[in-house]
Structures are given as C-alpha cells and as structure tokens.
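Translate sequence into structure tokens.
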Amino acid sequence: MQLLKQFSKEYSLFLAIVTFIGISHFEHTLVQSTAGNLIGLGILFVVIIYAAMSVAHHAEMLAEKFGEPYGTLILTMSAVIVEIVIIVIMMMHAHNPDLARDTIYSAIMLDINGLLGLAAIIGGLKYGEQPYNVDSSNSYLAMLLTAIGVAMVLPEFIDPVYHNRFMMFNVVVFIFLYIIFTRVQLMSHKYFFEYKGEGHCEEGKECEVHPEINAWYHSVNLVISIIVIGVLAEILSVFMGNTLDTFGLPMAIGAVGVAVISAAPELITAVRAAIDNRMQTVINIALGASLATVLLTIPAVIIVSKYLGLELNLSLTPVQTMMIALTLLVSMVNFNDGETNVLEGFLHFILFVVFVFLLFV
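Result follows.
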C-alpha cells in the first residue's frame, strides 16, 4: 500500500505517458507546419526535462542509500545511458556522422564549464571557498586528457585507411579503462573520491544506513524513467530535425539539446550539493559525468554505427580542439589546490558562454 501511495506521486511518469499518447496521435498533423514542429518540440523537450528530474530524484535516493562515491556513479551512469539512447535514436533519423562527436563535445562543455562553473559560483558566493579532495580532480583530469586525446584528437593524425580499425581498438581500450577506473573509484582508492565531512564513514564508526529508503523501488523507477525518456526522444528527433532544417540551423544545436537533456539530472543535483557545501559531490558529478560520457558513449556509438552501417566521425574540429584544450588546461590550474571559489567558477562559466557563442559563428 505504501509503495502504491509513493508510485501515485510519480507525476513525471504519468505526464510522459499522456504526452506520448497525445503527441503520437497528432504527430502527422504537427509535422506539416513550422508552428506544429515548434509546438511538438517545445512540449516534448519540457516533458523530457521533467522526466530527467525524476531520474535525478531516484538517483539521489539511491545515493543517500548507498553513500559516496556510489551515489554519483549511479547518477552519472543514468545520465550517460540517457545520452546514449538519445544519440543512437537521433543518429538513426538524422544520418549525421558528426552528431555523436558534437554531442560528446557539448556534454563535456556543459558538465565542466557550465555545471561545475555555475556550482562553484553559487557555492563561492555563499561560502567563499569550498574544499574537496584534490586526488579526485587529478585522477579525473588525467583520465579525461588521455581518453579525449586518444579518441577525438589522435584520429586526425592517423591514415584514414586505418580509422575503422582504430575505432574498434578504442572500443576495447575504453571499456577496459572504465572497468579499471571504476574499480579504483569503488575499491582500492575509494578515499580519493571522498572528502571528510561529506557523509562518508568516519574511521572506527559504522556507516549511517537508511532502511526507510527502498532501493528496489527507486531502481525500478530509475530504469522506467530512462526508458520513457528514450521513447519520447524518438519522437523528439523528428520534430528537432524538421525545426533545424526549417530555420537552417546546424545539427550542433540539436547536439546541445541532447547534452542538456542528459545533463539535467546532474545539474539539479550539483547545484543542490553546492548550496549544501558539498563540493566533492559536485566534482564527482561534473568530472565523472564527462569521463563516463567519453569512455562509455564513444564505444556505444562506434558499435551501433558498425551494426547499422552508419557513418561516424569522432575527430574534433580545430575550434572544438582548442575549446577542449582550454577547458582542460584551466581545470588543471584551478583544481590543483583542493578548494574552489567564485573566480574559478566564473572562468569556467565564461568558457561555457564562449562555447554557446561559437555555436552560431
């Protein structure tokens, strides 16, 4: 009875189902006009973001149940799965070889410069400086530099004849890297990703448990929310493609839309964490999500593109390469002292503003 009462409050799920039925019924009518495409796009985008908030809620409950770094790992994995589902669906509809690359690039810009920058500004205004474990930022940045360099920069210097072979090599290497990094994060060097005072177990004391949180309930609803987002994203891709074609906008705008949807749960959680003076959680979310995006999304889109016979280009453009390089360089300078402040957040947010401006140049 208690579970039914809880489930009756899953408003985002019910709204998503109603929206799916309504939009599916009127889809053929809406796609016939510019106004109809805009209405369909707007409604679906809002509903998907609302569903993404449900993903954030259930991931937060699981995070509270299991503690860090399991919590942020659950959240980032959920966001990456949403991202992979939407990218694959849009790749099948748009047949754009650059879509996956642009989405991954947008997700990195959004997570590190947008999300982390905004959280550092908010936390800095409230607390001045916010501490975190510098070992975590160093580990994430080293992995990001390696993964992005190998998968998205190095292909520019390799003979195109060997690109396909190199991409399949990356699938194996990246899955191996993610398994090793996850083992380090959860077992051998778990303390790298914790900060004293942010809720992990104190030495000699038992961890706080939350028996009132039903892990199965939140896990099932988390999966259902991701599935619902995927179903709605398939219809969204039609309206988004028509709208971009009508106004002559680049597909990169659509890629940013995908990144915003997948990052919505992380953004909500990160801002809450910054307000609560939990910068370690913000670091784990922002840098962890970026790393998961590269190490998991790239193998996924390579495998799907091979299976479906789709063309795929993961090589960054010169502008994208420069923006990624600036982002990682500024991150290495800023996140080497174990504390964030308003200035550091502002620098990253400025890079995010530049990223948005360059979309229209």
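Note: The chain has one domain: 2-195+213-358.
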